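Thought: the user wants the 3D structure for the chain below. I'll pass the sequence to the structure tool as-is, report back what it returns, then summarize two notable features.
Action: structure_tool
Action Input:
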Amino acid sequence: MAPVLQSSQPWVEKYRPKQVKDVAHQDEVVRVLTNTLETGSCPHMLFYGPPGTGKTTTALAIAHQLFGPEFYKSRVLELNASDDRGINVVRTKIKDFAAVAVGTNQRKSDYPCPPFKIIVLDEADSMTEDAQNALRRTMETYSKVTRFFFICNYVSRIIEPLASRCAKFRFKPLSEEIMSSRISYICKEEGLFLDAEALSTLSSISHGDLRRAITYLQVIPAKAVEALLKACKSGNFDLANKEVNNFVAEGYPASQMLTQLLEAIVEENDISDEQKARISKKLGEADKCLVDGADEYLQLLDVVSNAMKAFSNMPEGFAYES
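Observation:
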Protein backbone atom coordinates (compact mmCIF):
# COMPACT_ATOMS: atom_id res chain seq x y z
CA MET A 1 0.00 0.00 0.00
CA ALA A 2 0.94 3.62 -0.33
CA PRO A 3 2.51 5.31 2.72
CA VAL A 4 0.05 6.57 5.31
CA LEU A 5 1.10 10.20 4.84
CA GLN A 6 0.78 10.18 1.06
CA SER A 7 -2.63 11.85 0.90
CA SER A 8 -2.22 14.07 3.97
CA GLN A 9 -1.03 16.96 1.79
CA PRO A 10 -3.86 19.06 0.34
CA TRP A 11 -4.06 18.56 -3.41
CA VAL A 12 -4.33 22.33 -3.83
CA GLU A 13 -0.72 22.57 -2.62
CA LYS A 14 0.45 19.32 -4.18
CA TYR A 15 -0.59 20.43 -7.68
CA ARG A 16 0.14 24.15 -7.34
CA PRO A 17 2.19 25.26 -10.39
CA LYS A 18 5.82 25.92 -9.50
CA GLN A 19 6.55 28.20 -12.46
CA VAL A 20 4.69 31.15 -13.93
CA LYS A 21 4.45 29.50 -17.35
CA ASP A 22 2.38 26.67 -15.86
CA VAL A 23 -0.41 28.93 -14.57
CA ALA A 24 -3.61 27.99 -16.43
CA HIS A 25 -5.68 30.28 -18.67
CA GLN A 26 -3.93 33.57 -17.86
CA ASP A 27 -2.01 33.89 -21.12
CA GLU A 28 -1.51 37.65 -21.15
CA VAL A 29 -0.37 37.73 -17.50
CA VAL A 30 2.00 34.82 -18.06
CA ARG A 31 3.48 36.38 -21.19
CA VAL A 32 4.23 39.73 -19.54
CA LEU A 33 5.60 38.19 -16.34
CA THR A 34 7.79 35.72 -18.24
CA ASN A 35 9.40 38.60 -20.13
CA THR A 36 9.84 40.50 -16.86
CA LEU A 37 11.49 37.56 -15.10
CA GLU A 38 14.05 37.22 -17.90
CA THR A 39 15.49 40.54 -16.78
CA GLY A 40 15.84 39.30 -13.18
CA SER A 41 13.94 42.30 -11.86
CA CYS A 42 10.34 43.33 -11.26
CA PRO A 43 8.25 46.30 -10.10
CA HIS A 44 5.68 46.34 -7.32
CA MET A 45 2.74 44.24 -8.51
CA LEU A 46 -1.01 44.12 -7.96
CA PHE A 47 -2.86 40.89 -8.82
CA TYR A 48 -6.65 41.10 -8.78
CA GLY A 49 -9.56 38.93 -9.88
CA PRO A 50 -11.94 36.18 -8.68
CA PRO A 51 -10.74 33.60 -6.13
CA GLY A 52 -9.08 30.41 -7.31
CA THR A 53 -7.75 31.83 -10.58
CA GLY A 54 -4.01 31.69 -9.82
CA LYS A 55 -3.14 35.03 -8.19
CA THR A 56 -1.32 33.68 -5.13
CA THR A 57 0.19 30.86 -7.18
CA THR A 58 1.65 33.37 -9.63
CA ALA A 59 3.11 35.57 -6.89
CA LEU A 60 4.77 32.62 -5.15
CA ALA A 61 6.03 31.22 -8.46
CA ILE A 62 7.73 34.53 -9.25
CA ALA A 63 9.44 34.50 -5.85
CA HIS A 64 10.58 30.89 -6.28
CA GLN A 65 11.92 31.56 -9.78
CA LEU A 66 13.87 34.60 -8.60
CA PHE A 67 15.40 33.20 -5.42
CA GLY A 68 15.15 29.42 -5.52
CA PRO A 69 14.79 27.20 -2.43
CA GLU A 70 18.05 28.39 -0.85
CA PHE A 71 17.16 32.08 -0.52
CA TYR A 72 13.37 31.95 -0.58
CA LYS A 73 12.81 31.95 3.18
CA SER A 74 15.19 34.83 3.84
CA ARG A 75 14.05 36.98 0.91
CA VAL A 76 10.25 36.48 0.91
CA LEU A 77 7.69 37.45 3.56
CA GLU A 78 4.16 36.07 3.10
CA LEU A 79 1.30 37.73 4.99
CA ASN A 80 -2.44 37.23 4.81
CA ALA A 81 -3.68 40.77 5.08
CA SER A 82 -7.14 39.65 6.23
CA ASP A 83 -5.46 38.53 9.47
CA ASP A 84 -2.50 40.94 9.61
CA ARG A 85 -4.31 44.04 8.39
CA GLY A 86 -3.83 46.69 11.07
CA ILE A 87 -1.53 49.66 11.02
CA ASN A 88 0.65 48.15 13.77
CA VAL A 89 1.60 45.27 11.47
CA VAL A 90 2.72 47.76 8.81
CA ARG A 91 4.76 49.72 11.37
CA THR A 92 6.44 46.63 12.84
CA LYS A 93 6.53 43.36 10.92
CA ILE A 94 6.40 44.78 7.37
CA LYS A 95 8.64 47.79 8.02
CA ASP A 96 11.27 45.74 9.86
CA PHE A 97 11.47 43.22 7.02
CA ALA A 98 11.44 45.87 4.29
CA ALA A 99 14.20 47.95 5.89
CA VAL A 100 16.88 45.24 5.79
CA ALA A 101 19.04 45.52 2.68
CA VAL A 102 20.33 42.43 0.90
CA GLY A 103 23.35 42.04 -1.33
CA THR A 104 23.74 40.48 -4.74
CA ASN A 105 24.29 36.74 -4.61
CA GLN A 106 28.00 36.16 -5.10
CA ARG A 107 27.84 32.39 -5.27
CA LYS A 108 27.04 30.44 -8.39
CA SER A 109 23.31 29.83 -8.61
CA ASP A 110 20.73 28.76 -11.16
CA TYR A 111 18.50 31.60 -9.96
CA PRO A 112 18.85 35.38 -10.59
CA CYS A 113 18.69 36.29 -6.86
CA PRO A 114 18.31 40.05 -7.47
CA PRO A 115 19.30 42.44 -4.64
CA PHE A 116 15.83 42.99 -3.23
CA LYS A 117 13.26 41.17 -1.10
CA ILE A 118 9.57 40.48 -1.76
CA ILE A 119 6.61 40.99 0.58
CA VAL A 120 3.47 39.12 -0.52
CA LEU A 121 0.25 40.57 0.92
CA ASP A 122 -2.61 38.17 0.23
CA GLU A 123 -6.20 39.46 0.53
CA ALA A 124 -4.83 43.00 0.58
CA ASP A 125 -8.30 44.43 -0.01
CA SER A 126 -9.06 43.51 3.63
CA MET A 127 -6.46 45.94 4.95
CA THR A 128 -7.77 49.02 6.70
CA GLU A 129 -7.38 52.36 4.94
CA ASP A 130 -5.03 53.59 7.67
CA ALA A 131 -2.82 50.53 7.19
CA GLN A 132 -2.76 51.10 3.43
CA ASN A 133 -1.79 54.73 3.89
CA ALA A 134 1.02 53.73 6.26
CA LEU A 135 2.16 51.14 3.73
CA ARG A 136 2.39 53.85 1.06
CA ARG A 137 5.20 55.56 2.95
CA THR A 138 7.00 52.26 3.54
CA MET A 139 6.90 51.50 -0.19
CA GLU A 140 8.41 54.90 -1.00
CA THR A 141 11.19 54.60 1.57
CA TYR A 142 12.35 51.06 0.85
CA SER A 143 11.53 50.62 -2.84
CA LYS A 144 15.21 50.00 -3.70
CA VAL A 145 15.48 46.94 -1.46
CA THR A 146 11.90 45.62 -1.28
CA ARG A 147 9.11 44.81 -3.76
CA PHE A 148 5.47 44.48 -2.75
CA PHE A 149 3.03 41.99 -4.32
CA PHE A 150 -0.60 42.83 -3.50
CA ILE A 151 -3.21 40.12 -4.06
CA CYS A 152 -6.91 40.96 -3.90
CA ASN A 153 -10.35 40.14 -5.25
CA TYR A 154 -11.55 43.74 -5.53
CA VAL A 155 -9.05 46.27 -6.88
CA SER A 156 -11.44 49.12 -6.01
CA ARG A 157 -10.68 48.51 -2.33
CA ILE A 158 -6.99 49.31 -2.78
CA ILE A 159 -6.31 53.03 -2.32
CA GLU A 160 -5.13 54.82 -5.44
CA PRO A 161 -1.68 55.83 -4.06
CA LEU A 162 -0.84 52.12 -3.64
CA ALA A 163 -2.44 50.93 -6.88
CA SER A 164 -0.68 53.62 -8.92
CA ARG A 165 2.71 52.38 -7.73
CA CYS A 166 2.08 48.85 -8.98
CA ALA A 167 1.94 47.02 -12.28
CA LYS A 168 -1.63 45.69 -12.38
CA PHE A 169 -2.54 42.19 -13.57
CA ARG A 170 -6.16 41.06 -13.93
CA PHE A 171 -6.89 37.35 -13.55
CA LYS A 172 -9.89 36.01 -15.47
CA PRO A 173 -12.33 33.33 -14.23
CA LEU A 174 -11.38 29.91 -15.57
CA SER A 175 -13.58 28.35 -18.23
CA GLU A 176 -15.18 24.94 -17.68
CA GLU A 177 -12.93 23.52 -20.40
CA ILE A 178 -9.78 24.63 -18.59
CA MET A 179 -11.17 23.44 -15.24
CA SER A 180 -12.06 20.03 -16.66
CA SER A 181 -8.62 19.66 -18.21
CA ARG A 182 -6.83 20.36 -14.92
CA ILE A 183 -9.18 18.16 -12.89
CA SER A 184 -8.71 15.30 -15.39
CA TYR A 185 -4.95 15.61 -14.97
CA ILE A 186 -5.20 15.39 -11.18
CA CYS A 187 -7.58 12.42 -11.43
CA LYS A 188 -5.05 10.63 -13.64
CA GLU A 189 -2.22 11.32 -11.20
CA GLU A 190 -4.29 10.15 -8.20
CA GLY A 191 -5.77 7.09 -9.91
CA LEU A 192 -9.31 8.46 -9.85
CA PHE A 193 -12.02 8.12 -12.47
CA LEU A 194 -14.71 10.71 -13.12
CA ASP A 195 -17.15 10.28 -16.00
CA ALA A 196 -17.88 13.22 -18.31
CA GLU A 197 -21.05 14.18 -16.45
CA ALA A 198 -19.37 14.23 -13.03
CA LEU A 199 -16.44 16.19 -14.45
CA SER A 200 -18.77 18.77 -16.00
CA THR A 201 -20.79 19.07 -12.79
CA LEU A 202 -17.68 19.60 -10.66
CA SER A 203 -16.41 22.29 -13.04
CA SER A 204 -19.81 23.98 -13.14
CA ILE A 205 -20.46 24.17 -9.39
CA SER A 206 -16.98 25.61 -8.78
CA HIS A 207 -17.85 28.75 -10.80
CA GLY A 208 -14.38 29.24 -12.25
CA ASP A 209 -12.61 28.66 -8.92
CA LEU A 210 -10.05 25.93 -9.56
CA ARG A 211 -8.99 25.84 -5.90
CA ARG A 212 -12.57 25.03 -4.89
CA ALA A 213 -12.84 22.34 -7.57
CA ILE A 214 -9.65 20.61 -6.44
CA THR A 215 -10.79 20.74 -2.81
CA TYR A 216 -14.15 19.20 -3.74
CA LEU A 217 -12.34 16.50 -5.69
CA GLN A 218 -10.23 15.51 -2.68
CA VAL A 219 -13.11 15.64 -0.19
CA ILE A 220 -15.52 13.39 -2.12
CA PRO A 221 -13.64 10.08 -1.67
CA ALA A 222 -12.75 11.05 1.91
CA LYS A 223 -16.45 11.34 2.74
CA ALA A 224 -17.13 7.98 1.09
CA VAL A 225 -14.44 6.32 3.23
CA GLU A 226 -15.82 8.00 6.35
CA ALA A 227 -19.30 6.67 5.59
CA LEU A 228 -17.92 3.16 4.97
CA LEU A 229 -16.00 3.18 8.27
CA LYS A 230 -19.12 4.32 10.11
CA ALA A 231 -21.14 1.51 8.50
CA CYS A 232 -18.52 -1.06 9.59
CA LYS A 233 -18.72 0.18 13.17
CA SER A 234 -22.52 -0.06 13.13
CA GLY A 235 -22.42 -3.84 12.62
CA ASN A 236 -25.06 -3.56 9.88
CA PHE A 237 -23.75 -5.58 6.94
CA ASP A 238 -26.51 -4.40 4.59
CA LEU A 239 -25.56 -0.77 5.27
CA ALA A 240 -21.86 -1.52 4.78
CA ASN A 241 -22.66 -3.38 1.54
CA LYS A 242 -24.61 -0.34 0.34
CA GLU A 243 -21.63 1.95 1.00
CA VAL A 244 -19.34 -0.41 -0.93
CA ASN A 245 -21.78 -0.29 -3.85
CA ASN A 246 -21.86 3.50 -3.68
CA PHE A 247 -18.07 3.67 -3.71
CA VAL A 248 -17.80 1.30 -6.69
CA ALA A 249 -20.56 3.17 -8.53
CA GLU A 250 -18.66 6.45 -8.17
CA GLY A 251 -15.75 4.86 -10.01
CA TYR A 252 -13.08 5.32 -7.33
CA PRO A 253 -10.34 2.65 -7.42
CA ALA A 254 -10.50 0.08 -4.63
CA SER A 255 -6.78 0.55 -3.95
CA GLN A 256 -7.42 4.18 -3.08
CA MET A 257 -10.25 3.26 -0.75
CA LEU A 258 -8.02 0.73 1.04
CA THR A 259 -5.28 3.33 1.48
CA GLN A 260 -7.65 5.98 2.84
CA LEU A 261 -9.45 3.44 5.02
CA LEU A 262 -6.10 2.48 6.53
CA GLU A 263 -5.32 6.13 7.25
CA ALA A 264 -8.73 6.67 8.82
CA ILE A 265 -8.39 3.61 11.04
CA VAL A 266 -4.87 4.51 12.19
CA GLU A 267 -6.06 7.99 13.18
CA GLU A 268 -9.13 6.73 15.09
CA ASN A 269 -8.76 7.04 18.86
CA ASP A 270 -11.71 4.78 19.80
CA ILE A 271 -10.26 1.68 18.10
CA SER A 272 -7.98 -0.61 20.09
CA ASP A 273 -4.51 -1.57 18.87
CA GLU A 274 -5.65 -5.16 18.44
CA GLN A 275 -8.58 -4.10 16.26
CA LYS A 276 -6.31 -1.85 14.19
CA ALA A 277 -3.86 -4.72 13.72
CA ARG A 278 -6.57 -7.15 12.56
CA ILE A 279 -8.05 -4.69 10.08
CA SER A 280 -4.65 -3.56 8.80
CA LYS A 281 -3.66 -7.17 8.18
CA LYS A 282 -6.77 -7.73 6.09
CA LEU A 283 -6.20 -4.46 4.20
CA GLY A 284 -2.70 -5.64 3.29
CA GLU A 285 -4.01 -9.01 2.08
CA ALA A 286 -6.72 -7.33 0.01
CA ASP A 287 -4.22 -4.94 -1.54
CA LYS A 288 -2.03 -7.87 -2.59
CA CYS A 289 -5.05 -9.62 -4.10
CA LEU A 290 -5.95 -6.50 -6.08
CA VAL A 291 -2.39 -6.30 -7.44
CA ASP A 292 -2.76 -9.92 -8.56
CA GLY A 293 -5.97 -9.07 -10.43
CA ALA A 294 -8.69 -10.04 -7.94
CA ASP A 295 -12.23 -8.65 -8.24
CA GLU A 296 -12.44 -5.22 -6.56
CA TYR A 297 -16.00 -5.59 -5.29
CA LEU A 298 -15.33 -8.95 -3.62
CA GLN A 299 -12.14 -7.70 -1.99
CA LEU A 300 -13.93 -4.65 -0.61
CA LEU A 301 -16.67 -6.84 0.82
CA ASP A 302 -14.04 -9.09 2.40
CA VAL A 303 -12.37 -6.08 4.03
CA VAL A 304 -15.73 -4.78 5.29
CA SER A 305 -16.69 -8.17 6.71
CA ASN A 306 -13.41 -8.53 8.59
CA ALA A 307 -13.53 -4.93 9.82
CA MET A 308 -17.01 -5.51 11.24
CA LYS A 309 -15.80 -8.67 13.00
CA ALA A 310 -12.85 -6.77 14.46
CA PHE A 311 -15.08 -3.97 15.73
CA SER A 312 -17.46 -6.46 17.37
CA ASN A 313 -14.53 -8.58 18.70
CA MET A 314 -15.83 -11.66 16.89
CA PRO A 315 -13.39 -14.45 16.04
CA GLU A 316 -11.84 -14.41 12.56
CA GLY A 317 -13.65 -17.60 11.52
CA PHE A 318 -17.10 -16.02 11.97
CA ALA A 319 -19.01 -15.36 8.72
CA TYR A 320 -21.78 -12.83 8.15
CA GLU A 321 -24.86 -13.89 6.25
CA SER A 322 -25.56 -11.74 3.20
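Final Answer: Structure generated. Confidence is low (pLDDT under 50) at residues 1-7, 318-322. The radius of gyration is 25 Å.
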